[in-house]
Amino acid sequence: MFGAAGAAQAADATCELDRTVRFGGMNWESNLVLVDVQRTILEKGYGCKTEVLPTETLPALAALERGDLDVNTEVWLNSVADPWAKAESTGKVKRVADVFMGGEAWFIPRYTAERHPELKSAADLPKFKEAFKDPEEPNKGRFYGCPAGWGCEVVSTNLFNALELGNDFTLYSPGTGAAQKAALSSAYRRKQDVAFYYWYPTPLVGAMDLVKLELPEYDAKAHECLTSPTCKDPQPSAYPENPVFTALNADFMKAAPELTKFFSSMSVPLPVMDATLAHMDESGDDADQVAEWFLENHADVWTAWVPEDVANRVKSSL
Question: Considering 192, 242, 290, 303, which has the largest number of Cβ atoms within 10 A of its Cβ?
């Protein structure tokens, strides 16, 4: 997926960094696409070499702080508020651009809501555990949480415990984002009752007719604790809007001010992000192909991030 772009460099551009730029490769769709968008612009527009190092949310943050990574394209703040605050306080990482405003919720399909009209909130789930029977523990229901190792796993686990669901439900954490999507898509196609955590914008949320389960009113202090792996007394709170931003290693920023200016300018309107992910779902294309589709079809967006000469070199490469 990532090899082709790295092989060819823009002939008339010289990268200000004399080494490869290292990106964190998280495996959800928007991150995969936006990483490839950024890499294409760096390679074709700025003449840089790039590589992607596969990782997960919390390890990526630690790697960015150490300098093993230069760029973390998508940090979902509300999933890592406490770890991010600690990393930022070291001065070794910096938030440079708000890419888009994401969201998170606990969902059920609309057909489930229609079958069980009294199921309105997450706190109601224990009364309906038979509808969500866990095949491995049939005396409990199954709630699909966040994929293992992702920052949102901390929040969903703490929230699950805060709502005291453990006596009636198992919290199932799929091994990967792909496994989570496959399980939920299969249940939806079969019209099975399923309760789950998910985030948006994503192709899955856009493709399904879903209803959000009500959560207790958002409480900033409670949510801050929910984001901490060491939260001792988790209290329930709704998810706030979730700023999604790009973060850079501080030493990288000093060494590459022009590239930093590019990363700091990046912003994608939510309707454009939705359209891009919808195209990915409909076409079945890989992330690098979707990135090229984005560059070809939304030049009005990305050309605002870079100088004219850089934009022209990228356009010529498409």
Answer: 290
- Provide CB contacts within 8 A for 38, sequence distance 6+: 23, 71, 73, 263, 266
CA distances from 172 to 6, 237, 260 (A): 38, 20, 39
Phi, psi of 109 (to 5 degrees): -65, 155
Residue 105 backbone class (left: φ over 0; alpha: ψ -120 to 50; beta: rest): beta
Kindly report, residue by residue over 272-310, the tens digit of the pLDDT.
998 899 889 889 999 999 999 999 999 999 999 999 999
Judged on CB neighbours under 10 Å (0-12, 13-18, 19+), 89 is exposed
With a CB cutoff of 8 Å and minimum separation 6, the contacts of 164 are: none
Tokens of 152: 């949102």
Type of residue numbered 223: H
How many of the other CB atoms lie within 10 Å of CB of 138?
A: 10
**Strand spans (E) along 9-116:** 21-25, 50-54, 71-76, 93-109
Q: Is the pLDDT reported for residue 271 higher than 90? A: no
pLDDT at 7 exceeding the cut of 70? no
Mean pLDDT for the stretch of residues 88-96? 97
Amino acid letter at 160?
F
The burial class, CB within 10 Å (0-12 / 13-18 / 19+), for 257 is exposed
In contact, 170 and 135? CB cutoff 8 Å: no
- Count other Cβ atoms within 10 Å, centred on residue 229: 12
Distance CA(226)–CA(293), nearest Å, equals 38
Q: At 197, which amino acid appears?
A: Y
- DSSP state for residue 68 in the 8-state scheme: S
Which pair of structure tokens corresponds to residue 163?
């709502």
Instruction: Report, as an integer, the average pLDDT of 220-233.
Output: 92
**161 beta partners:** none
Q: How far apart are CA 227 and CA 213, in angstroms?
A: 20
